Amino acid sequence: MTWPRTDRGRLFLVGAVGAAVTVFTATVPLLRDWFDLRVYYGAVNTWVHHDGRVYDYQVPGTSYGFTYPPFAALAMVPMALIGLRTAIVASVLLNLAALAVVLRVLAGSGWRRYGWYGWSLAVCGLALFEPLRDTFSFGQVNLLLLSLVLVDGVLPAAGRDRWAGVGIGLAAAIKLTPALFIGLLLLGRRWRAAAVATAVALAATCLAALVDPAASRFYWTEALWETGRVGRLDYVSNQSVQGVLARLGEPGRGVWATAVLLVLCVWAWRARRAVRAGNWTAAFALTGLAACLVSPITWVHHLVWLLPSFAVLVRSGHPRVAGALYAVLCTSVVWLWFDDASGVGGFLGSNAYTWITLVLLLGLPTGQPRTVRPFLTRSTSASAPAPSPAAPAMTPVAAQSVSSSGAEGAAAATGGAGFGRSPSSEPTASTLPEAANPQSSSSRASSYTVSPPSA
Q: What DSSP element (H or E) covers 343?
């Protein structure tokens, strides 16, 4: 394919791609009507204004309620001061800001080289990514958590070690699965950051317990262990190891626990290799992959945690592999088996996103990334002046050697993308019928994760 070389041609291409993406997102994907945000909004308002119990609230006409830890509800209290429409607008703006942060971190220090043209095409591509589409449409929080974790990863390289761990700790207090990143800090011997993350998570949890002791007691002793509160394990949107087993009809917890242990062993081995190579970007990406696999429920929109993996593939010189896997995640292909996931075709197709996550966990490059010239930038031949025939430019060999080794050393020190130093209408299924079991296990119910609440 020949890419346009003039600004007019590039503007025309961006406009055409943007129009095609708009048509696609308006007609093909299922729109979730901010279902998860409605869960958050209703639960917090009932809690604050009507003296209700946050875990007893259910969206009218459904059995879905709040399933995040109590601190998440505390963090969402500002929603009780605004209307639902304002909350929806705020959710979209916060997710856009979080996406900008994620892209800035993953692009690294050379983000400006892509220019308006490269970033415009990137935004169009991101609009097709099903987990990202659903995150915005559900009003989900995982993109915000991803931005907290990634920013935490670049703090050491930015000379702000004392804050390292705060973002991971807050993310773990809002939702449990990011707690695996504390394990990554321990693997990388970043003891202080791990201690800070643990302290922040515990402090936030204790604060929520002081505000509402009954809610905290109910969550940690009952709600946390009732996976049925979140949704059906065999629902096609659940792209975790547990989801695969549930669609096979495997009810035993022993098989799932064994599979989770194997995944964690692979993660620890590969993440440790990435840390030793100084590639913290890959280490963070691998941790996000493992968290998605071991969580009992990983709805499709939770797979925004795969975004760092694609950045690692591109930086490692595998853009075609990244493009192929990314394209599959844009197709909503798993929904073809919404009604029936039986047979070989159902086993392979309904779990397609899980297979991609596993492939990335097993094969993601963990060494230092290559220096890859972005294909969307203007070629040097078009912008650099030709050398004068009378005085050709020459660079001493020694200078070239020093410059090259210096650049490689700088890349190793920052881990590629600047990470650390080396040494649904339903939360996932708004179309599902009401669950047989109520979301609250007590008679207090009057009328979360991952979620429907979704979490």
A: helix 343-349
